[in-house]
Amino acid sequence: MKAFYSTRFVLPLPAGHRFPMGKYGRLHDRLAAELPAVALAQAEPADDDALALAHAPGYIDAVARGTLDAPAQREIGFPWSEAMVERSRRSVGATVQAARAALAEGVAANIAGGTHHAGAERGGGFCVFNDVAVAARVLQREHLRRHPGARRPRVAVIDLDVHQGNGTAEIFARDDSVFTLSLHGEKNFPFRKVAGDLDVGLPDGTGDDDYLAALELALDELANRFEAQHVFYLAGADPHEGDRLGRLKLTHDGLIARDRRVFDWAWQRRLPLTLCMAGGYGHDIETTVQAQVNTFGVALHYWRRWQNPAR
To answer: Residue 12, exposed/middle/buried by CB under 10 A (0-12, 13-18, 19+)?
Structure first.
């Protein structure tokens, strides 16, 4: 199973910064050691042409040149640097490459990504560019180039990060070829939500059983309202009970059950699935990384089913 990464996902941050940048290197190393069937590949950066499928050219240029005003840069949450720009481009590129691989093999992944707070003209919440939005539009464009006159492929975004995917909802607000589902903490960031196609807000303290019941209802509604041809799955580790920013109470077993349900939903419909890891801010970084390794274990199981569909 292909999974894309970049050594430049790790960018220098000031001492005491709350973003756990080290989780990407830890995840890469554990996948290499424990799940050798995950083929790790270096991500290429997304160029301006790809980014402009989801972002305003002026915003792309301001990020690249470091000319965002101070409030806009603070909203992103990272200080500007060339490394920040490079990491952001490669995070998008990793999801684009994973989406192409998923079309060929059924399942593929970005070991980072899920930057769902970035809108067309702004970043936010540690998100500079919206990797899923760009990748969805790249897939659609490439399909139309191969099949002139065809309909755009219909894409479902299943966002199970604990924070609502406001940027993704904004970008696709008037695009009926993309369905955005977000299952998140109702009282958590962002405090001003942007309505997607299906938003399910959960109260603080929601545990495994109630979460999984809400997910089941949401997937049923998605299936009833939208006929998808590709799935992007944001498998945030931050609903875990040990997360600093999550405020929900899922166990590791609950997150594994969540992942299995999403992968099975896509498998039953033979929908290629692109996996992004999205958020995770455990008090202990190893708790976050363990949740992500668990998700990759589920993903690998379903990738193998795609390679041997008779099983």
So the answer is: exposed
Q: Which residue among 28, 55, 116, 117 is the active-site one? A: 117
Does the active-site annotation cover 55? no
- At position 114, the amino acid (one-letter code) is G
Global pTM value: 0.96
Taking each helix axis as running N to C, give the angle between helix 208-225 and helix 252-268, from 0 to 180 degrees, rounded to the nearest 10. Answer: 20
- The residue behind tokens 């924070």 is 163
Lookup: tokens for 154: 């219909």
Would you write out the chain's pLDDT as a tens digit for each of its 311 residues? 999 998 655 667 777 777 887 888 899 999 999 999 999 999 999 999 999 999 999 999 999 999 999 999 999 999 999 989 999 999 999 999 999 999 999 999 999 999 999 999 999 999 999 999 999 999 999 999 999 999 999 999 999 999 999 999 999 999 999 999 999 999 999 989 999 999 999 999 999 999 999 999 999 999 999 999 999 999 999 999 999 999 999 999 999 999 999 999 999 999 999 999 999 999 899 999 999 999 999 999 999 999 987 66
Joined together, the tokens standing for residue 116 give 């769902």
- In eight-state DSSP terms, residue 211 is H
User: 186: part of which helix (H) or strand (E)?
Assistant: none
Sequence-distant (≥ 6) Cβ neighbours of residue 178 within 8 angstroms: 136, 154, 155, 156, 157, 172
Report the amino acid identity of residue 93. Answer: G
User: Is 106 in contact with 23 (CB distance < 8 Å)?
Assistant: no
